[in-house]
Design goal:
Length: 434
């Protein structure tokens, strides 16, 4: 544990600027419009499984060696100084787009960076004003990665691929399918890549060699043992010596491999872990035990067990993020799906109607957990009736009544989804209900 009290008085920004003129600092910058918190926590769990002295700054606060510190800016300044002094080996930083776009980051300082997603190729999202802030932030994060560092990008999000051409760092691409054009080009060129095929998470030889190279450098106190470079090969891959990392169905956060956005988060964290030089057994063990903790990651697709039923709590705020969630639920194919939802007051009528259309694809019941105006209800109904078998629509005046009503109907094989405007408060209500 570094002497944080002494380091509180130091100027972290000055240290970063000085560092940018020499070697990169062992910092990981993670940004994206969705999945950055999950990715950051999973990576932190992988790093801490090796007992590597490390820190995490995420939406729930600053943690050093799993100890939560008071405040944010001062503790993180202490973390940076501890990294410079060698008292910590790694810092993982979750970066919010509006802050990065406004404040910026020093260039060529971070050894590692990752961008989880921008819009998932959704046209409406790409045209939104807030997306400009996110894109600006992504550019800043890409420039913040040192030329000797590694930048991990989601190749399924076409808007991010331009950053691969702009960045001077080594780029690692990941995708949900081996035939993703960008990943296929990277594999053909012998560049590091990660993809999913038939439920298996696969790293090509170039990525495995990058992991070995990083481990040999021992920049964060790692050693070469346990790298497993001779793991099972994927016979259908272009890379004859590709390595199977894990079957994603073994990851509890994917709900049996059905939640594609969680698989993308696994791939992003895994690519970073390999770039760090972490051994495959550590990566696998962490994936097999990781679930987004409702305490530290509220609203990040938390899976709770309440009165014998699976309750999935998510803080989706836009139609395109909701679409990925519903797609995964449909792949899981529950007997019936009960959706408890607020009324998304920040969405305009067209977007709200789209929410209705998306939720209308689920077989079961939609329960509003708050009052809704006739006009807004009509817009939502215009969305759900586009489904050939629209779910039943019910309104309750408050969340507790809606929850009691849903639980009176839930049976074995059903799934309950809670869409939360305020995830911490909603999770607290669920825990009281239990």
């Amino acid at each position: 544990m570094p002497n944080l009290e002494r380091l509180h008085s130091e100027n972290a920004e000055s240290s970063l600027e000085n560092r940018s003129r020499s070697e990169p600092l062992d910092l990981v910058a993670i940004t994206g419009t969705r999945g950055k918190s999950t990715t950051a926590w999973l990576l932190y769990q992988m790093v801490r499984a090796r007992r590597i002295p490390s820190a995490l700054w995420c939406s729930s606060g600053v943690y050093v060696n799993e100890q939560r510190l008071e405040g944010e800016l001062q503790p993180w300044a202490a973390v940076v100084r501890a990294l410079v002094a060698g008292e910590l080996a790694l810092g993982i930083q979750e970066l919010e787009a509006p802050v990065v776009a406004t404040v910026g980051l020093p260039e060529a300082v971070y050894r590692f960076g990752a961008i989880t997603t921008l819009c998932g190729n959704d046209t409406a999202c790409l045209l939104a004003a807030e997306t400009r802030y996110a894109w600006r932030a992504h550019e800043i994060v890409a420039r913040a990665v040192h030329p000797d560092g590694v930048l991990v990008l989601n190749a399924d999000d076409q808007a991010l691929l331009e950053l691969a051409d702009r960045s001077t760092a080594r780029t690692v691409l990941f995708a949900l399918h081996p035939e993703n054009p960008a990943v296929r080009r990277a594999r053909g060129a012998g560049l590091p890549a990660l993809w999913c095929q038939d439920g298996l998470l696969i790293a090509n030889r170039a990525l495995v060699e990058l992991a070995a190279e990083r481990a040999d450098r021992a920049s964060i106190g790692l050693h070469a043992e346990g790298r497993e470079c001779t793991d099972v090969a994927d016979p259908d891959a272009t890379d004859a010596s590709a390595v199977v990392v894990i079957d994603v169905r073994e990851a509890p956060c994917t709900l049996g491999g059905t939640l594609l956005f969680q698989i993308q988060n696994l791939m992003c964290a895994t690519a970073l872990a390999l770039a760090l030089g972490l051994p495959l057994p550590t990566i696998r063990a962490s994936i097999r035990t990781f679930l987004p903790d409702a305490k530290f990651l509220p609203g990040s697709c938390n899976v709770l067990s309440i009165r014998g039923h699976h309750i999935l709590v998510d803080g989706a705020r836009h139609p395109w993020t909701l679409r990925t969630l519903v797609r995964g639920v449909r792949h899981r194919n529950p007997r019936r799906t009960f959706v408890l939802t607020h009324t998304f007051p920040w969405l305009d009528e067209f977007e709200w109607q789209e929410v209705g259309r998306i939720l209308g694809r689920l077989n079961g019941m939609i329960v509003f957990t708050e009052a809704i105006s006739e006009e807004r209800l009509r817009a939502f109904q215009e969305g759900i009736v586009q489904s050939p078998y629209p779910p039943v629509l019910v309104t309750h005046p408050d969340f507790e009544q809606a929850l009691r009503y849903a639980f009176s109907l839930l049976q074995s094989g059903d799934l309950c989804i809670v869409l939360a405007a305020d995830p911490p408060r909603t999770i607290a209500q669920l825990e009281r209900f239990e």
